[in-house]
Known about the structure:
Shape: elongated
Helix content: under 10%
Strand content: 25-35%
Structural class: mainly beta
Mean pLDDT: 91
Order of helices and strands: HEEEEEEEE
Number of strands: 8
Low-confidence stretches: none
Distance between the termini: 88 Å
Number of helices: 1
Oligomer: single chain
Amino acid sequence: MSKKIRLPETDDGAILFNVPFPADTKDLKQMSPIVIKQNYSIDYIHSFGQDSPFFAGLANGKLMGTRCNACSYTYATPKGHCMNCGNETEWIELPLQGRIHTFTVCEFGSEAFLKETPFILVLVEFDEADTLFLSRIVGLDPTKASLDWVGMKIKAQFKRNSKFKPTDVYFVPAD
């Protein structure tokens, strides 16, 4: 008789013990399904494409917008082409100070922000831009929201370790 050959076994993956199995194979169709919880991970390669200068700016403490080459319309949230005339835009550096145009207190948020609710989102108005910029503001108490905040001078701050996300920049009240 030949020697029994076995493959090596490891502890990784799903290991199930005492898996129910009917005594009669005729009963297999009535068997409950086996459910396994399994971790899944994938590396996702993402390109920022034409928005790369915006995220590179955030990583370097700069807020980048765009300006139309033809009509000079300026976008605080960058656009590759002008929404007014359709011409190409160019990158510009925005000021790091602006004003609260309007705000909202967010009582609920996605999973990434659950621990931080309630938080405040602001639309930032810049003297040099024709559009507004959506961001968070910290340093104000969301339970004491006031229309007195509209027009308040605020300044940009950047996370020390950039995650290449729009949340790398946030605003605080200016001194």
